[in-house]
Write a structure and sequence with these properties.
Elements (H helix, E strand, L loop, with lengths): L12 H15 L9 H7 L12 H13 L16 H4 L4 H15 L8 H12 L1 H10 L3 H28 L8 H15 L5 H13 L17 H25 L3 H24 L2 H26 L11 H4 L1 E4 L1 H4 L8 H6 L8 H7 L1 H6 L3 E4 L3 H9 L3 H7 L11 H10 L6 H7 L1
Parallel strand pairs: 1-2
Helix pairs in contact: 1-3, 1-17, 3-17, 6-7, 7-8, 8-13, 11-12, 11-13, 12-13, 13-19, 20-21
Length: about 425
């Protein structure tokens, strides 16, 4: 598969609309316009075939907004990650009727009506993960332990990005269900490898405050982002020391109460694991809690490395230039549009379904800021390709915008290489 011309049929409809729009711009750029943001703007101002006089951008934006608007006839809630609403039309009449009834009820229970899928997954976790964990503690079998761990490994990506929405929105269910919305993470988070409340304190109260800058404990700027040794140091620091460094960070910033809370929940989780291991059932504790924790800690840093591997050497403070956008199946179909990381950093409170339309509304700014948009690759594979220094493959995955359109493959590869260089102490002082 050549990532430069393959369009994955499993992309979500919004992803397909965005990708085709961006590719249309690149393919129809006039030579004198390719290096011009104004040219990028002009390329879209053509009448549509239906004679409405709207630009292709406006048509696509209106379509995306309609999909998200519960009052619009074209509204489509997300019910499952694997299938879209149109796929459900192929089901037998009885099954379709049951699902339609479920969707009607679920839309009244979730915080945002598009998010039926989150209730679907809560039901999934409480009917599989929770009973399986209880059974392992009551009657442990090695085969069951391994199967449980594999199941949780499959679940964790989607779950983590559901919780990502939860911590930014202050919940995912209607306000009337605040009690369950507040309680369920204390049950399901440890099963997926999250320590209690640590994701909230690290991600919302720390990472989004510092924005991959010098004081961000998960910042990539002081590392050479295509070197295995630097990557291992990066992962190792988080893996072994975040329990101490995060509370100390809050303490240095004068947030003593937050430092105490972060330390309390992190160390409290470790204490619970110690008790379960030594006094309850060490085998069950290993597969239910410890392996998911160790695995997720590595996974979070692999993902964050990919999200912030490319940092602009001229203006690293720009959210457009210190994060990237992915149009791919794993990130956006299965992980709540996690690929739109630039959009998320521009507005951390933006709902996940609004990222595609936001990108199109701001695509001139994306082009002007030399933002990076990739397709047919996820954050994990970006990290792997960087470790292999396979910049040509990464260049093939680039969806060119603005002056990137006129670059050769080698020029794109070299441009990407310049954005993975370590920032020296002098660079940090002068640019931040």
């Amino acid at each position: 598969m050549d990532p430069s011309n393959f369009i994955d049929p499993n992309l979500t409809e919004p992803d397909l609309l965005v990708l085709k729009n961006l590719l249309h711009d690149a393919e129809h750029a006039k030579p004198e316009e390719k290096n011009s943001v104004l040219g990028a703007r002009n390329r879209t101002k053509k009448p549509t075939q239906n004679g409405t006089g709207q630009s292709p951008d406006e048509d696509t934006i209106q379509k995306l907004k309609a999909l998200n608007n519960a009052q619009n006839a074209e509204f489509e809630p997300t019910v499952f990650v694997t299938w879209d609403v149109k796929d459900l039309e192929k089901l037998p009449k009885v099954v379709k009727s049951i699902l339609q009834s479920y969707v009607r009820v679920a839309r009244q229970l979730v915080r945002v009506e598009t998010d039926v899928v989150m209730l679907t997954h809560l039901i999934l976790y409480f009917t599989t993960s929770v009973p399986s964990a209880i059974l392992l503690f009551r009657n442990f079998h090695w085969a069951h332990g391994v199967a449980h761990w594999i199941m949780q490994t499959y679940y964790v990506g989607t779950y983590t990005l559901m919780m990502h929405q939860h911590i930014h929105m202050g919940g995912i269910l209607k306000k009337g269900l605040w009690w369950f919305d507040g309680v369920f993470p204390y049950i399901t988070n440890p099963l997926m490898g999250h320590t209690w409340n640590s994701y909230y304190y690290h991600h919302v109260k720390h990472h989004h405050v510092e924005g991959n800058g010098p004081d961000d404990l998960s910042s990539t700027i002081r590392y050479q982002r295509d070197e295995l040794g630097d990557f291992l140091c990066y992962v190792g620091r988080f893996f072994f020391f975040i329990w101490l460094e995060l509370p100390l960070y809050f303490f240095r910033k004068g947030k003593t109460a937050m430092a105490a809370k972060a330390a309390f929940w992190e160390l409290g989780n470790y204490l619970a694991l110690y008790v379960l291991w030594n006094y309850v059932n060490w085998k069950a504790t290993l597969f239910v809690f410890l392996l998911p924790l160790l695995q997720l800690r590595v996974g979070l840093m692999v993902g964050n490395w990919g999200q912030h591997a490319f940092v602009d050497e001229v203006d690293p403070n720009s959210d457009f230039r210190s994060s990237i956008t992915l149009i791919d199946v794993p990130s956006n179909r299965f992980c709540y549009n996690d690929g739109y990381h630039t959009s998320h950093h521009l507005n951390p409170l933006r709902h996940w379904r609004d990222h595609p339309v936001s990108l199109l509304q701001q695509k001139d700014r994306y082009a002007e800021e030399h933002a990076l948009v990739f397709r047919n690759i996820d954050y994990i594979m970006i990290t792997i390709r960087l470790m292999r220094k396979d910049y040509k493959y990464l260049a093939k995955c680039l969806v060119p915008m603005g002056d990137q359109v006129d670059m050769t493959l080698d020029e794109k590869a070299e441009m990407l290489r310049t954005k993975t260089k370590r920032f020296s102490d002098m660079d940090v002082k002068s640019k931040f």
